[in-house]
């Protein structure tokens, strides 16, 4: 079976210094809306399993394509009966579940936009500030929660007066069991037929570097076309219906658009993983992998940072995990090369053959995938080449680094109710400007792909005027010191680069046993400090001033969601961490050096 199509890229250099890249593969046709996939598979194979989730008894609760189509149609009618429309969309506060999936499909089938927001905004936030902003921007006609009691405080924070839909704890007339028994009329069928490529499907809220949510408009055509693009470079999807075990939140484009839509487009099966890569919850993911062997693994570096040591410790689990795996896929941030190598080694040892470890690049504004590493490239930072139908523009940023811009049918028309944000997001040729930096893996061969170099807004200059590329340096640090789970780079307007970091609990326990409880904000542990001092020294061998981390401090307190330091997907906001923990940054540059600050070992 051929996994990946060979990349074929045209490169055009312009007089203004811009470089244009596009695929020579013509983009094929796609269906008008997401609901068309569900209707197709419900007609062709109604008994095939669409999704499963753990029930209260720990057993899998399942729903087939046929049942999902019937219930989504009923829910679509129920939403229309309650006055939902393009102007009065559906807000979803709950996390991934079959109920969440059904109400989303019901809304999409009748052209009602859906806005799934991070569960953390409801259950972990102390002031519900972001949720209130979203409610004011969106003016939802209804809000769905799994349990109205659990989400009671969040629901009280909403001022829109939206109808509360729930699986339990709410008014019986608005419970999910009532919605799915609604009799669909010609109104629902007419609404389904009226869905077009430019119909708004979702409003996905991102916080960005400011922490203030902005709603990215995703049209039905963005979502369906993006899956067509992916299918053309991943032909194995048409030969083998995908099976996913996935925790990635549907409030983000990776989990909710890329992964869920891939299952729907190809008639696959999604096992909703009730775990996540955090202490106390990751064992649930491992238990789910023991039950179900995926054909594709989707995750972020934080997830693989937890998964790899677990697979290395448990050969039976590793054999189950790799038994029918085709692709290991990483996104959201660059995968540290050392972690990538460990994944590949595990696959060879357990499966007896190569398993592709690959990645992609995209944003919420690009539905999301704009590039794809069609096959295994030589560098873990490779994000590949533009997908069919995507045009990239690279604008010179610094020596061999370029600002990445993107244009095509996959790009958002703008931000919901914020034209003031929409215009600055595009250049004068209509290219979306996400603020990411790339370089060529091979300057002489565009088919070798692009390397992700991080966020331009995160990069800074030392006092010497030398640029520090934060994304690349952070990835190098995490690769050199696998015991670290994440880090932020410091040194703007100073003469040396340092770092603040967190320990990966799984790696820390495997290497040092249980670390003692820290006294305050800083982890001060002699064996850990010695290990990190050596790792820094090895990282710094033959490195220039902009690639040398001279000191490091390990933090005890995890990044704070309310302060915008992290998303619930695990992406750390460099600027927010440095702003809120400036006193810790000061320790790194204090003389004499405090005893808890780790310095690169000498003499290596």
Can you walk through the features of this model?
The chain is of the alpha/beta class. It has a domain of 140 residues: 2-Layer Sandwich (GMP Synthetase, Chain A, domain 3), CATH 3.30.300. The chain has 21 helices and 27 strands. α15 links the parallel β14 and β15. The longest helix has 17 residues. The relative contact order is 0.10.
Q: Fill in the CATH topology of the domain at 460-599.
A: GMP Synthetase, Chain A, domain 3
Structural class: alpha/beta
CATH architecture of the domain at 460-599: 2-Layer Sandwich
- Tell me the number of strands: 27
Helix content: 25-40%
CATH class of the domain at 460-599: Alpha Beta
Q: What sort of overall outline do the alpha carbons produce when their principal axes are compared?
A: globular
> Uncertain regions: pLDDT < 50 for 5+ in a row?
none
Give, in spatial order, the strands making up the sheet with the most strands.
1-2-18-19-20-21-17-16-15-14-13
- How many H/I helical runs? 21
The gyration radius over C-alpha positions equals: 24 Å
Query: Terminal Cα separation, in Å?
Result: 47 Å
Mean pLDDT: 93
In CATH terms, the superfamily of the domain at 460-599 is ANL, C-terminal domain
Q: Indicate the proportion of strand residues.
A: 15-25%
Which sheet architecture does the biggest sheet show?
11 strands, mixed
Question: Short summary of the structure?
Answer:
The chain is an alpha/beta fold. It contains 21 helices and 27 strands. The protein has a domain of 140 residues: ANL, C-terminal domain (GMP Synthetase, Chain A, domain 3), CATH 3.30.300.30.
């Amino acid at each position: 079976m051929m996994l990946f199509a060979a990349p074929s890229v045209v490169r055009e250099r312009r007089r203004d210094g811009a470089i244009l890249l596009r695929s020579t593969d013509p983009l094929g046709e796609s269906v008008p809306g997401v609901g068309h996939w569900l209707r197709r598979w419900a007609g062709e194979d109604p008994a095939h399993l669409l999704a499963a989730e753990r029930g209260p008894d720990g057993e899998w609760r399942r729903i087939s394509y046929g049942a999902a189509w019937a219930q989504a149609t009923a829910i679509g009618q129920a939403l229309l009966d309650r006055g939902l429309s393009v102007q009065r969309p559906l807000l979803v506060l709950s996390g991934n579940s079959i109920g969440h999936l059904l109400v989303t499909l019901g809304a999409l089938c009748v052209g009602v936009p859906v806005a799934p927001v991070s569960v953390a905004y409801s259950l972990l936030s102390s002031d519900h500030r972001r949720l209130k902003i979203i409610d004011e921007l969106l003016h939802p006609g209804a809000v769905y929660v799994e349990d109205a009691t659990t989400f009671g405080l969040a629901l009280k924070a909403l001022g829109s007066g939206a109808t509360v839909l729930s699986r339990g704890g709410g008014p019986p007339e608005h419970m999910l069991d009532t919605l799915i028994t609604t009799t669909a009329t010609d109104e629902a069928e007419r609404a389904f037929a009226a869905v077009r490529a430019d119909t708004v499907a979702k409003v996905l809220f991102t916080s960005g570097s400011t922490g203030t949510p902005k709603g990215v408009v995703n049209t039905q055509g963005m979502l369906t076309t993006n899956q067509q693009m992916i299918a053309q470079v991943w032909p194995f999807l048409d030969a083998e219906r995908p099976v996913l075990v996935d925790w990635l939140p549907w409030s983000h484009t990776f989990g909710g658009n890329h992964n869920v839509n891939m299952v729907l487009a190809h008639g696959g099966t999604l096992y909703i993983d009730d775990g996540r890569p955090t202490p106390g919850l990751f064992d649930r993911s491992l238990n789910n992998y023991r039950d179900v062997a995926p054909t594709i693994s989707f995750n972020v570096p934080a997830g693989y940072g937890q998964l790899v040591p677990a697979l290395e410790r448990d050969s039976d689990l590793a054999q189950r995990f790799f038994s029918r795996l085709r692709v290991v896929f990483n996104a959201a941030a660059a995968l540290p090369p050392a972690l990538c190598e460990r994944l590949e080694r595990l696959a060879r040892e357990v499966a007896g053959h190569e398993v592709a470890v690959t990645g992609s690049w995209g944003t919420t504004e690009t539905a999301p995938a704009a590039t794809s590493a069609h096959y295994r490239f030589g560098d873990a930072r490779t994000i590949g080449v533009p997908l069919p139908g995507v045009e990239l523009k690279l604008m010179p940023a610094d020596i061999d680094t370029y600002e990445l811009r993107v244009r095509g049918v996959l790009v958002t028309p703008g931000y919901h109710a914020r034209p003031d944000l929409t215009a600055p997001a595009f250049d004068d040729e209509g290219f979306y400007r996400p603020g990411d930096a790339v370089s060529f893996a091979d300057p002489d061969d565009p088919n070798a792909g692009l390397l992700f170099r991080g966020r331009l807004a995160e990069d800074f200059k030392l006092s010497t005027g030398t640029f520090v590329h934060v994304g690349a340096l952070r990835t190098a640090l995490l690769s050199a010191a696998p015991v670290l789970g994440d880090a932020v780079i410091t040194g703007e307007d100073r003469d040396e680069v340092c770092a603040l970091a967190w320990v990966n609990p799984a790696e820390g326990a495997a290497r040092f046993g249980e670390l003692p409880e820290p006294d305050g904000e800083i982890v001060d542990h002699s064996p850990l400090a010695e290990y990190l001092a050596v790792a820094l020294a090895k990282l710094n061998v033959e490195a220039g001033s902009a690639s040398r981390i001279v000191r490091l401090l390990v933090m005890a307190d995890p990044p704070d969601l309310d302060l915008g330091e992290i998303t619930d997907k695990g992406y750390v906001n460099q600027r927010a961490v440095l702003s809120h923990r400036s006193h810790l940054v000061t320790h790194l540059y204090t003389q004499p050096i405090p005893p808890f600050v780790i310095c690169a070992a000498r003499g290596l």
